[in-house]
UniProtKB/TrEMBL annotation:
SUPFAM superfamilies found in the cross-reference section: Flavoproteins (SSF52218)
Alphabetical UniProt keywords: Flavoprotein, FMN, Oxidoreductase
InterPro entries: Flavoprotein-like_sf (IPR029039), FMN_Rdtase-like_dom (IPR005025), NAD(P)H-dep_FMN_reductase (IPR051814), NADPH-dep_FMN_reduc_SsuE (IPR020048)
Top-rank taxon, per record: Bacteria
Protein name as catalogued: NADPH-dependent FMN reductase
Enzyme Commission no: 1.5.1.38
Pfam family, one: FMN_red
Domain NADPH-dependent FMN reductase-like: 3-140
GO BP annotations listed: alkanesulfonate catabolic process
Amino acid sequence: MAQIVIISGSPAAVSRSAALSAYIREKAEASGYTAEAFAVRDLPPEDLVYARWDSPAIQEAQAAVAEAGAVILVGPVYKASYPGVLKAFLDLIPEKGLSGKILLPIATGGTVAHLLSLEYAYKPLLSVLGAREFIDGVYLLERQLAYQGHQLTFLDAEAEQRLLAAVEGLLSRLQQNQ
């Protein structure tokens, strides 16, 4: 059982979201926590589209979320909100499935115009699923990050510090809750 589940919501195989997920997982594990990361894009598309609750892949992903004490969502901002593939997965989480968990939403985007998507798109959806304990979300501009595969390089030290502070806040809260 992983203490932390990191969900990459990008539909792309190679993405900032995947690189950020790997980076965060490494930081969590270096701090002594168990972390599991998965990409929603790797779940069978037909299971997501047809809401196949009984799919083994969906049930495995749901179980990972159910057993974790903290959930980190990482995704790009598309059309001022989260990607549809991420929403399709979140629709399959049982009602109140995020209750009692610490949530950290992280979004990337091309402009600061989408900064508030964490507040008006992510948080309301996660709240409907029972989330009440949030670490302040982190919005990163695409120009602040470079990636090659799952290797992430920060091009802006302030952006890296904001992300690290949020992750450390989540780890601290997780330790308090244990």
